[in-house]
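Appendix B, record 7
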Amino acid sequence: QLQASGGGLVQSGGSLRISCAAPRTITSVFNSNRMAWYRQTEGKQREFVASSATGGNTDYADSVKGRSTISRDNAKKTVYLYMNNLKPEDTGTYFCAMGRNWGQGTQVTVSS
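Structure tokens (predicted):
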């Protein structure tokens, strides 16, 4: 199970860090999986936001590049997404994925 948390209401230009923990996952399994964040807004398809590969490589959607940092703490089996200079278009439900497994989302709302 993946447990996302940390979402909330933020003013435009603000920052937020969301987390996704996999407490029931064996550490070695967590370590061997690509972790990623996606987001979805009503009426739209889920879109890629950022990913962290097992070798340390990270990737970002152009829309968040330069404003977001994905990181992972393998010992805690947790992946984080730090976002700053938030914009209203960053609003959405953020989902984390471990390989092909999805967690529940956490809502991020950016007010203008």
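Remarks on this record: The radius of gyration is 13 Å. Helices lie at 27-31.
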